[in-house]
Design brief:
This is TIGR00266 family protein. The protein is mainly beta. The chain has one domain: 4-Layer Sandwich (Double-stranded beta-helix), CATH 3.60.160. Helix content is 5%, strand content 49%. It contains 2 helices and 19 strands. A hairpin with a 6-residue loop joins β17 and β18.
Length: 220
């Protein structure tokens, strides 16, 4: 299985080249085109790649997941996120998991295990609209962003502070805390906003545009 991120940073697409028997999980509705030899199946998440997902602090919830499986060599699928922006590849080697805002996960290989994570950041997405997903195992995951994706490195003597609306993903070993910051405004209330402080050793992926603009534009 091979992957290519194409079509630029603003209108990025993910092309997956597959051999017979290759299987990949994708965000429902993200398919643009596929070979006729690629079979699409949507289920509730029981078993399969990730098992049933659970919200971090609420009752068990079945989440629809789409799987693409190739029935012949040289098959392909092209995916695109719902909004303008970039796609980033995250390589997991089995030694450390990655947490992702669930709306940012576009696709993942079969060896990646998904589940929900404890609500560390308590930010808008994880406490209001979406859960935080935990990815484990060895394989590839692809996240989509509103705007470009920046990967930052956090070290023990250099913590990172991120406007929480721009936080996309982070490695599981990082310590996460939330605090008010008068230098930014709340996207909803116009007052002080919140930032997320990440400390320790690890990586962070941020999106360069604020997705709250999309919610405001829709009147939500």
């Amino acid at each position: 299985m091979d992957f290519e991120i194409a079509d630029g940073h603003s209108y990025a697409t993910l092309e997956i080249s597959m051999d017979a028997g290759d299987r990949v999980g994708v965000d429902p509705g993200s398919m643009v085109i596929r070979s006729e030899s690629v079979h699409s199946e949507t289920n509730s998440g029981e078993g399969g790649l990730g098992g049933m997902l659970k919200r971090a602090v609420s009752d068990e919830l079945e989440v629809l997941t789409t799987f693409m499986e190739a029935e012949a060599d040289d098959s392909r699928v092209v995916l695109a996120p719902d909004y303008l922006g970039d796609i980033a590849h995250i390589d997991l080697d089995g030694t450390e998991g990655v947490k992702v805002q669930s709306g940012g996960l576009l696709a993942w290989t079969e060896d990646i295990e998904r589940g929900t994570a404890r609500n560390d950041a308590s930010n808008f997405f994880s406490s209001g609209e979406l859960t935080v997903l935990k990815l484990d195992g060895s394989g590839s995951a692809f996240v989509s962003a509103f705007g470009a994706v920046r990967e930052e490195t956090v070290t023990g003597d250099d913590p990172l502070v991120v406007d929480e609306d721009h936080l996309l993903a982070w490695t599981d070993g990082l310590s996460v805390s939330r605090q008010k910051d008068s230098s930014i405004k709340s996207s909803l209330l116009g007052g002080e906003g919140f930032v997320t402080k990440l400390s320790g050793e690890g990586r962070v992926w941020v999106q360069t545009r604020d997705p709250m603009i999309l919610y405001q534009g829709n009147g939500n």
